[in-house]
Specification:
single chain, 156 residues, mainly alpha
């Protein structure tokens, strides 16, 4: 009996330590990324904003959306590939907030840009467009599934 309690306490203590350590590590990573963002060039900013988005998407969709919007503003100056990524990310932020109608709106904008990329003469952009279409159609399908519209979900 005492041994079981001791093992349980050891397990709980270890898990508490790991959760605290992980939270500290995430906080350090976020601080580091936010500091790098201040002095980064445009190419670096895109990567950092995507990383910050990924870090926050499940824990704080509103913060992740903030980074996705910053990415979109930067991407408008750069290229359609990054614009499509930013639009998809904004949609994902709305999805995590259960605002499926708004998420669908952004996914459809991302889908349109990805379809334009597929027609690019640049093979890398065309491939990126195909990958983006695949990802975006999956996201759209999930929304229709959540709404119970399985026919529409199967189309996507």
């Amino acid at each position: 009996m005492h041994r079981t309690i001791l093992i349980l306490l050891t397990f709980l203590t270890a898990n508490t330590f790991l959760v605290c350590f992980q939270t500290f590590a995430d906080s350090s990573k976020i601080d580091s990324l936010e500091n790098k963002l201040k002095n980064a060039n445009n190419k670096e900013k895109i990567a950092i904003l995507n990383a910050l988005f990924d870090t926050y998407i499940s824990s704080s969709p509103e913060k992740s959306k903030k980074y996705a919007i910053q990415l979109l503003k930067l991407a408008i100056k750069k290229n359609k590939k990054e614009q499509a990524t930013a639009l998809n990310n904004i949609g994902l932020s709305f999805f995590y907030q259960a605002n499926y109608k708004k998420a669908l709106e952004y996914y459809q904008k991302a889908l349109k840009l990805n379809e334009e990329l597929v027609n690019s003469s640049n093979d890398a952009l065309a491939k990126s467009g195909k990958q983006g279409i695949s990802c975006t159609l999956t996201n759209i399908g999930i929304i229709y599934h959540n709404w119970g519209n399985y026919e529409k979900a199967l189309e996507n």
